[in-house]
Amino acid sequence: MASALRSAILGHVRVPVVTTGSKLLTPLWINRSTSVRSMSSHDDHLEKTQVIDRILDIVKSFPKVDPSQVTPEVHFQKDLGLDSLDNVEIVMAIEEEFKLEIPDKEADKIDSCALAIEYVYNHPLAS
Amino acid sequence: MAFAMRVKVPPNSATLEEARHRTFDFFRAACRSIPAIMDIYNLYDIVTPSQLRSTIAAQIRKNAHITNPKVIDMLLFKGMEELSNITEHAKQRHHIIGQYVVGNKGLVQDVANKDENISNFLKNFYKTNYF
């Protein structure tokens, strides 16, 4: 958790350029506040527990699924007995819930809850 | 202009696998246009998007047993045509409700007669002579 936070922060922090030149040569717009983007709205990454809960809710409310069998590692076709069309339908439901648009190649690979959670968690635009 | 968005490549599918892929593409296109459909026909109080998704999936599954790629292409063409008609508002609300909404478990009760709290005996009596 801490490492994820750290990498998220490292992705956003901009290190100010330090040159050996004199102050006269540095442009006037470089000041201390470039290192912390206080007005950035890109830090609202979803929590992993939130992602897991929402995805499990989607899978449980699918009419063909037995809710008691749903765990975060369950495989849609092997464990829940769904077919490939149901798989696509679940992926579309996930797309709708998190307001994403998953390209076809990625969508074909999402076969289980674990992959879905990982994909959504790593997607920058998930909400 | 509506079908320019979703033109399917005319050449026939070479294999069953390609036809299968096209079916999934069609299903995804249909699911992505569900919000627009609900907006056009004002279906917000009647169905949820997930019920519509299930209906579309059920209709696709009705033809799931077909193995000839050309037949699958033809069915997909008909499906695309239907989807285009719906999204460009060539149909009306009662068409959508009758074809895609009613018949799901949630709404069959709206179609049947109102339950008037009469006894079972009377219900059977009104229905048929032999019970």
UniProtKB/TrEMBL annotation, chain A:
Pathway: Lipid metabolism; fatty acid biosynthesis. The keyword Mitochondrion applies. Residues 49-124 form the Carrier domain. Keywords: Electron transport, Fatty acid biosynthesis, Fatty acid metabolism, Lipid biosynthesis, Lipid metabolism, Mitochondrion, Phosphopantetheine, Phosphoprotein, Respiratory chain, Transit peptide, Transport. GO terms for cellular component: mitochondrion. It is found in: Mitochondrion. Coiled coil: none annotated. The keyword Flavoprotein does not apply. InterPro entries: ACP (IPR003231), ACP-like_sf (IPR036736), PP-bd_ACP (IPR009081). GO terms for molecular function: acyl binding; acyl carrier activity. Complex I is composed of at least 49 different subunits. Carrier of the growing fatty acid chain in fatty acid biosynthesis. May be involved in the synthesis of short and medium chain fatty acids. Accessory and non-catalytic subunit of the mitochondrial membrane respiratory chain NADH dehydrogenase (Complex I), which functions in the transfer of electrons from NADH to the respiratory chain. PANTHER family: ACYL CARRIER PROTEIN, ACYL CARRIER PROTEIN, MITOCHONDRIAL. NCBIfam families: acyl_carrier (TIGR00517), PRK00982.1-2 (NF002148). This is Acyl carrier protein.
Automatic annotation (TrEMBL), chain B:
One of its GO terms (cellular component) is respiratory chain complex I. Its main location: mitochondrion. Keywords: Electron transport, Membrane, Mitochondrion, Mitochondrion inner membrane, Respiratory chain, Transport. It is a peripheral membrane protein. CDD domains: Complex1_LYR_NDUFA6_LYRM6 (cd20266). GO terms for biological process: response to oxidative stress. It is found in: Mitochondrion inner membrane. Belongs to the complex I LYR family. PANTHER family: NADH DEHYDROGENASE [UBIQUINONE] 1 ALPHA SUBCOMPLEX SUBUNIT 6 (PTHR12964:SF0), NADH-UBIQUINONE OXIDOREDUCTASE B14 SUBUNIT (PTHR12964). This is NADH dehydrogenase [ubiquinone] 1 alpha subcomplex subunit 6.
